[in-house]
Amino acid sequence: MLSLRVRFVLVAALILALFSISAGWILRESFQASILDRAREQLRLQVYNLLGAADYDNGQLQLPGELADPRFNQLNSGLVAMVWHRQQPVWQSRSAALESLSPPEVPEPGQWQLRQVRGLGEEQRNYYQLSTSVYWDETTADHPYTFVVWEWDLPYVAQIRSFETTLWQWLGGLVVGAIILVFILLNLGFRPFRQLAAELRAVERGSQSGIAAQYPSEVMPVVDNLNQLLAHERATRERYKHSLGNLAHSLKTPLAVLKGLGGSSGAGAADTLADQVQRMDDIVNYQLKRAISAMPQISGQGALLLDCYQRMVAVLDKVYADKNIHHEQDIRPGLRLPWDQSDTLEVLGNLMDNACKYGAGKVRVQGYIQGGKIRILVEDNGPGIPPGEEQHILARGVRRDERAPGQGIGLAVVMDIVQASGGSLDIVASELGGACFRISLGW
Asked: Phi and psi dihedrals of 306, rounded to 5?
């Protein structure tokens, strides 16, 4: 398939060729018309000279043997004059001796008649013929004298051909120059697209993350859309990568519960096993949905915070049975969060799991409404967070204690869910002596 540049050049060449042909034809016709006007004026001047030299005496028209223009006095000069009366020649110039010309039509007196005629001789030359009729007195009223002048068209045809040659040379040169100029302009015009293609190849090779150069205003919408597409593709890749880590992190707690069952049997162990298997199934489905949508699942009614708290206490008591965790809660009855149950368990479970892991045996959860916003506080009585490290530990892959097991994913997941809902997560000192994770959600 032809490139856009070649297509533009071909279309421009076609338009310029059509324009040049049309302009050349118009100029040629205009020049030819001007040549014809010039020939008419030249012949009319010769007729006036004949009329000025003519004399009418005793019923006879008399003209001198030689005329002022020397061409009338030379054979084969290309300029011939004759006077006709009653369809018969009554006078002719010396140059007419070797010419064979047909009798002219008799125009009305006072009228001028210009024609292009062909001679009757072997050469059959082309002539411009100008004729007019004149009355000298009453006796010639029925049969006027017709004055006729012929001139070869060769000088005029030569001028027309010379003009045509020059005209087409100039127009051809202009067309070639215009095509070259169009080609140069197209190269300049398509330069941003070549630069854009080079940047896209650099993005494909991984040497740059996006399109950074500034382009003309007509190209910038495409550049912005491409950058958005690249950013979306990177975000999708990161989301899938994070989702795998989130899935592994979320399954850690149910697996720990199942591991704690050991060889236990009985109805309680069976219920716990079924509950944790169901929890693991919910986690897998939840993480798959988040990998696709990258947004928290908003529920119409929202999950009850107290119910989710109680479920997490039951799970964490089994995971940290050796630590004998003391749980406290001050949750407003009926308080619902703007998430579905899976997101609520993900947030609450990560924060409470950290409190159990890094605390000294005491965990407190509060939930209330203050200033039109939902406040959720998860506190522990551990060593707390060193000043200045609050934002650092919220990053993915960073852990509060490098000696403790984990991947540093839980707080990053909480941060993603909270921020996606338009909320905020702060870390402050707890009254219990440890860290307090405070979530604020606006309605």
From this structure: -65, -40
Joined together, the tokens standing for residue 155 give 């000088």
Angle subtended at Cα 59 by Cα 58 and Cα 61, rounded to the nearest 5 degrees: 100
Q: Closest Cα partner for 98 from 117, 125, 116?
A: 125
Structural domain containing residue 143: 4-159
Rounded to an integer, what distance in angstroms lies between the CA atom of residue 169 and that of residue 163? 10
CATH classification of the domain holding 40 = 3.30.450
Regions of the chain with pLDDT less than 50: 295, 297, 299, 402-407
pLDDT tens profile 52-88: 888 887 777 888 888 888 988 988 888 999 998 888 8
User: Of 142, 159, 176, which residue sits at a domain end?
Assistant: 159
Amino acid at 177: G
Distance CA 380, CA 360 (A): 7
Give the model's pLDDT for residue 313: 92
Cα–Cα distance, 128 to 121 (Å, whole number): 16
Residue 360 lies in a domain: yes
Q: Check residue 407 and give its pLDDT.
A: 46
Beta bridge partners of 331: 367
Q: How many domains does the chain have?
A: 2
Indicate the residue type of 187.
Answer: N
pLDDT, position 406: 47
* CA–CA dist 151, 132 (Å, integer): 15
Sequence letter at residue 311: R
**Same domain membership, residue 119 and residue 242:** no
CA 183 – CA 6 distance, rounded (Å): 9
Q: Please check whether residue 208 is in contact with residue 199, taking contact to mean a CB–CB distance below 8 angstroms.
A: yes
188 contacts: CB under 8 Å, gap ≥ 6: none
Domain termination residue (choose one: 126, 159, 192): 159
397 φ, ψ (degrees, to nearest 5): 90, 0
Whether 437 and 345 map to the same domain: the answer is yes
Q: Do 250 and 137 reside in the same domain of the chain?
A: no
Strands of the 113-118 sheet, one edge to the other: 88-92, 79-85, 145-152, 126-134, 113-118
pLDDT tens-place string over residues 99-135: 778 888 888 888 899 988 887 666 678 889 999 988 8
* Residue-level pLDDT at 244: 63
Strand partners, 429: 435
The per-residue pLDDT for 109 is 83
Question: Rounded CA gap, 146 and 90, in Å?
Answer: 10
Say which amino acid occupies 359: G
